[in-house]
Amino acid sequence: MAVTLSPAAARHITKFISKRGKGIGIRLGVKTSGCSGMAYKLEYADGSEPDDVIFDSEGLKVLVDPKSLPYLDGTELDFVREGLNEGFKFNNPNVKDACGCGESFNV
Hints:
Elements: E1 4-5, H1 7-20, E2 25-33, E3 37-45, E4 53-57, E5 60-64, H2 69-72, E6 76-82, E7 85-91, E8 97-98, E9 105-106
């Protein structure tokens, strides 16, 4: 099992952590939401929880709660720029279907 960061995502996260002045990496998870059933949760992590599964990727820690891990296994978090928009993109091989707005998915 693994969850990884692309080099572009790692650069963006590192830059943001530097501006914040604290942080060890990023916390990823899923929640029930949206028209397709699940949505991603993403936040900067200042520390780990006892039950977190921790992956080292591109010099940063990626923390995932155990309940979310089966839905995120194999996912690469990327940071992309498309025209004037930029943001994180989840390259998740487990997704079977996603809603039209791109906010939710199902496996």
